[in-house]
Amino acid sequence: MKKLIPKYFMFFYILHHVILSYVISKFTYFVTLIRTFIPLPSFSLMAETALSLYFRSLGLSPYTVDLDDQTVMHFWVTNHRRFEKPNLIMVHGYGGNSMWQFFRQVGPLSRSFNLFIPDLLFFGKSYTTRPTRSEGFQAKCVGEGLRRLGVERYTVYGISYGGFVAYRMAETYPEEVERVVIVSSGICVTDEEQKRHLESIGRDPLKILLPETMEDMRYLVKSSMHKYDVLKWIPDFFLRSTLTDMEYRKEKLELLKHLMEEHVKSHCPVLTQETLLIWGNQDKFFPPHMALKLQRHLGPKSKLEIIEDTGHAANMESPHELNELIKPFVLGQSKCNGK
Questions:
Q1: Per residue in 125-167, pLDDT tens?
Q2: Which residue has the higher pLDDT, 326 or 207?
Q3: Can you say how many angstroms the Cα of residue 90 is from the centroid of all Cα atoms in its chain?
Q4: Section 261-265 average pLDDT
Q5: What is the structure's pLDDT at 325?
Q6: CB of 56 closer than 8 Å to CB of 115
């Protein structure tokens, strides 16, 4: 009898997946058929609306700053600033705008800090007609936007591509930036190290980070996460709009090319601010050895924290652990000692 249990279990397990696959395929066909005749809102539009309502419920409001006649910066800003709370700037990565990347962190952090969350240029509602595509220009646009908002002193937290921007902000605005948090950013990597790493990935990074097909998108998300394959049971028709609705594809490609071709040639200064580095131990895009190298470069004013069982997208996989590291550091309850 005991020997039969695994066989029955396997039978029902397979049956469950067959039925689930059938239901998903029929549902996909039904919705596709309906959308042929009735123009339904795209998934990305519905998600943007829901995220916007969520941010507003936390006491954040959208704010647009015209830096000049060529550049516009969009921020989510705490409605009623409390002077006893520190100011925290949250700079998103390449995968999407600020709402998409920080929705799992923003709730708890809004209770401890005055939040200022920019959309980087060509993400969300920020854009420029200027030809510059460097992370240094992104940093200046965020910094100047904060000055227009009356933010004089702050901690900047950047993840992935946002980490490169945060690093340049700390360099450009040493008086304004009090502390720095860098999460999963391959800063100070040499050209040779970058080449070896790209060869180990085995795919064109431009196609991974700027997907054109559903296969590329699923690969991007699966590679960014370690614990979960969040798109496994989501039908293609729900996700396809995120590709077709993508704005500024040409400009985003130029940002990537500049980062890959020019960043490795640029000077990587030692920051004067205390800097907290946070990495997932399963990060495939920027492996932990890059974090160790960056910590050695920064010296005794830096501290490295590794989050276990977490990939590149720590903001999505381990938001609680990430927040619990960020909060005491920004509040001055945790000091860097070069360890």
A1: 999 999 999 999 999 999 999 999 999 999 999 999 999 999 9
A2: 326
A3: 10
A4: 73
A5: 98
A6: no
Residue 288 token pair: 């932990």
CA-nearest of 58, 154, 61, 157 to 110 is 58
Q: What's at 274, amino acid-wise?
A: E
The pLDDT-based confidence of 237 (bands split at 50, 70, 90) is low
Q: pLDDT band at 67, cuts 50/70/90? A: very high
What CA–CA distance (Å, rounded) separates 184 from 145?
25
**Which stretches of the chain are assigned E, i.e. beta strand?**
60-66, 71-78, 87-91, 114-119, 127-128, 154-159, 177-183, 274-280, 302-307
How many other CB atoms are there within 10 angstroms of residue 275's CB atom?
24
For residue 48, give both structure tokens: 């943007």
Burial class (CB in 10 A: 0-12, 13-18, 19+), 162: buried
Q: DSSP for 205-243?
A: HHHHHS--SHHHHHHHHHHH-SS--TTTTS-HHHHHHHH
Task: Give the model's pLDDT for residue 33.
Answer: 41
Characterise 124 by phi-psi region: left (phi > 0), alpha (psi -120 to 50), beta (else).
left
The Cα–Cα gap between 173 and 155 comes to: 11
Query: What b/e string do you get for 41-76 counting C-beta neighbours within 10 Å, with b at 16 or more?
Result: ebbbeebbeebeeebeebebebbebebeeebbbbbb
Query: What interhelical angle do 161-172 and 135-148 show, nearest 10?
Result: 60
